[in-house]
Here is the input.
Amino acid sequence: MISEEVDFCLEATKEQMNSAIAHLELELTKIRAGKANPKILMGVMVDYYGSMTPLNQVANISAPDPRTIAVQPWERQMIGPIERAIRNANLGFNPDNNGEIVRINVPPLTEERRKEYVKQSKSVGETAKVAIRNARREAIEEFKKMVKNDGLSEDAQKDAEAEVQKLTDSFTKKIDEMLAVKEKEIMTI
Here is the structure.
């Protein structure tokens, strides 16, 4: 009975940590790495007949070459709103349209800009690590409550805390690996 509660708490902690990793992946895709990546436009919202809609739901987004992102609206009259939405998203892009497609030229990154993006990705990574540590802290507090209220033995508590620490270490290592990959991607010309 008690071990079920411990298992449930461990599963919930693991789920929290997984969602921190998923959020980190999303945030890292938004950070530009010098070459055109359609995911850069993931957060862009377009005014689609009065309702704010994600860009990828009103157009096809592709990267025909390493320096260009092409946005092909499904409805021709959406060209203007799409172009405005990209400008207003403050991504540093100047979209251009030929009446059918919105093209975005992705300029090469300067050394200074690359270093800023590395800093930005490390900051996002640190936020994910904080979320992981918070999940660990909550789980340990939960185990302490179980000892106090539910009669969980102190040995079982120590084992559960060790398990949470293993999870924390493995997720932190995963974050470090993701950041190393992103940094290499940003710094590669």
